[in-house]
Design brief:
This protein is α+β, with helices and mostly antiparallel strands. It is built from three helices and seven strands, in the order H-E-H-E-E-H-E-E-E-E. A hairpin with a 5-residue loop joins strand 4 and strand 5. Helix 1 runs antiparallel to helix 2. It is globular, with a radius of gyration of 17 Å.
């Protein structure tokens, strides 16, 4: 593994541990923003037809592996030596996070589209944590109600607006 890969993994682990300290369950991600650990069930079928969500005790179940436990997070990153980032499992207690991903790809103005939605549906966009993305987009982090499941969507609200929920 190249030094830069090791440095990226070390930095990603440090940031993941920092997020976990704040109660956010995290998993290691690859360069493609997908979970860095492959499913241990890849290529196999469950006779009952029910997918495993980590009950088997092995890593590789995506957001079902997410944790706030520092020892478990270190073990996840050790099992994923090529991880270059971390992801936050949205929709889980205690914060019930909802991520609003505003992309700038394909010349869309997703920020303007979100403001238009707010005007049309009479809601305000609350002051919140905003993270700038490497591609020039933004992630808005909101806390959702514990009794409402907000599903993931891509471009459903408007072009360039993706939602990350439960």
């Amino acid at each position: 593994m190249a030094t830069t890969d090791r440095q990226a993994t070390t930095l990603a682990l440090a940031h993941a541990l920092s997020a976990a300290e704040r109660g956010l369950p995290v998993i290691p991600l690859s360069r493609t923003k997908l979970p860095a650990l492959r499913s241990p069930h890849r290529g196999t079928t469950d006779p009952a037809g029910v997918p495993c969500h980590g009950e088997c005790g092995r890593f590789g179940h995506g957001v079902h592996d997410a944790s706030t436990d520092p020892a478990r997070i270190r073990a996840l990153f050790a099992a994923a030596p090529r991880a270059t980032g971390y992801g936050i499992a949205c929709g889980r207690p205690p914060h019930h996070l909802i991520g609003v991903d505003l992309d700038t790809k394909s010349g869309t103005d997703s920020s303007a589209a979100l403001r238009e939605l707010a005007l049309r549906h009479l809601f305000t966009i609350p002051a919140t944590v905003v993270v700038l993305t490497p591609s020039g987009g933004r992630h808005l982090w909101l806390s959702g109600p514990p009794d409402v499941v907000v599903p993931n969507s891509a471009g459903r609200l408007a072009p360039g607006i993706d939602i990350r929920g439960a």
